[in-house]
Amino acid sequence: MHTISCMIPIYIYMGFLLLASSTILVASQTIVENLPGYPGPLPFKLETGYIGVGEEEAVQLFYYFVESEGNPDEDPLIIWLAGGPGCGTLRAFFYEIGPMRIRYGSYMDNVPALELDPNSWTKVANVIYLDAPTLTGYSYTKTPETMFSSDISSATQTAEFLRKFVKSHPKFLKNPMYVTGISYSGIIIPIITEELYKGNEEGLEPVVNIQGYMGGNPLTDKTGDINSRLEYAYRMAFISRELYEATKTNCHGDYAEVDSNDLLCMSHIDEVNKRVEGINIQQILDPDCDPATNLVRSENPIISGNRKSLRSINPMKMLPEQSFHKDTFCRGDYYNYATLWANDENVIKALNVRKGTVKEWLLCNLDMKYNYGKPSMPLYEFNVDSSVVYHEKLSKRKCRALIFSGDHDMMVPHVGTHNWISSLNLTITESNWDAWYSNGQNAGYKTTYARDNYSLVFATVKGAGHTAPEFKPEECFHMVKRWFANRPI
């Protein structure tokens, strides 16, 4: 049942809608039986709602929760966090691991039409899709002070959210819990996981059955991950061996933090950037529809997204003949469908979004989005440079981890991910860069590690880009299905 107090004045601050701080809100949840764009009742159980976190619960986090279509009483309970930071979790719901996907070029109920996704992770897990931090997706805040977030505060609030979620959903208290997500969330996933373990030890209620975590294409060590782009570019034949070795030597292996007064190093980096400027950094095989790529010494957004107004979208792009028969395929055009769907009045009503709290749903809030070299954005502080120390802490616990990387991702290359995993000094066990398979075909390579009660699987996903499940949904589904079942992937 949806429960909410009477609403009192709403204010606008920096273009964002805020509820008056004296508004009293009760955690709410709604079972959604029908969605605009989909014919008939939903064949899965979808719940949407808000949970307040932080001081006086001023931050109201919106979530979608889909019970497992398999065995909800025993299947894992996972939370999925989108990247950015500041990207709405509908991106995961429609494009990555969710139960529905968009039928491009088709419309129903005046919105983009929806269909079921056969590779939804909800077939093997109970999945919470969370709009976090605040001012992401449909989440909002009641006070100007709580508009601003950071790596640490976002992790703390998400850990609080999870404990409150299972308290309000006690049937899932015993289910194995995993913290999962993609891209920039790699910074906060191990922090949240460690917070949950510590909270249990400190007697926080309720005790959650935290068992581990999972990161897809995870930004983890910001300097190391950015530095690894150069080696990746060389391995993929985008730059010559001579240029690679000269850059490596004259920049002393550090391209992310290079001194701009080091003219020799900077000249090599300029040459590298000339070679890769036409490459799509998120999926090297896709056409490049964005501004010129720079591997280092540029803004280096970790995930592309838009904060452009719905009104700025060219409606003609939504027509099939424009979207599918133009000369260049641009994956970003697909995301406009989600923006149109999420801003429809009937969709907002069906999801039971609190009236007046979100002026406009955005795929990504660019006032938060990570830019390498900047300590903060207007609404977000990047105050964790590396989360490797949290992986080290977790490696001393009874904990499972799965880290996977699309091998066509030059945004957060698998090269850098493999480097920080190696720095943990774990023991390689059953597999050492062995092939893993989906439908009898090579789907990538895996290495398994362990230390006492800790285990970690690192897997590449062949042919996948920065958000691996978006590019290789069936292969990623097979991978996590096996991992959740404690089987070799």
Descriptive notes:
The chain has 489 residues and is of the alpha/beta class. 26% of the residues lie in helices and 23% in strands. The chain is built from 13 helices and 19 strands. The strands form 4 sheets. Strands 3, 4, 5, 6, 9, 10, 12, 13, 16, 17, 18 and 19 form a 12-stranded mixed β-sheet that branches. It has a 3-stranded mixed β-sheet with strand order 11-15-14. Strands 1-2 form a two-stranded antiparallel sheet. α2 crosses α3, α4 packs across α11 and α5 packs antiparallel against α6. It is globular. The two termini are 39 Å apart. The N terminus is likely disordered. This is Peptidase S10, serine carboxypeptidase, Alpha/Beta hydrolase fold protein. Belongs to the peptidase S10 family. InterPro entries: AB_hydrolase_fold, Peptidase_S10, Ser_caboxypep_his_AS.
Q: What's the β-strand tally?
A: 19
Structural class: alpha/beta
pLDDT average, as an integer? 89
Which residues form runs of ≥5 with pLDDT under 50?
1-14, 20-24, 303-325
Q: What oligomeric state do these chains adopt?
A: single chain
Largest sheet: 12 strands, mixed
Strand content: 15-25%
Overall geometric form: globular
Helix proportion: 25-40%
Q: What is the gyration radius calculated from CA atoms?
A: 22 Å
Features:
single chain, 489 residues, alpha/beta, 12-stranded mixed beta sheet, 3-stranded mixed beta sheet, 13 helices, 19 strands, 23% strand, disordered N terminus, glycoprotein, carboxypeptidase, Peptidase S10, serine carboxypeptidase, Alpha/Beta hydrolase fold protein, transmembrane helix
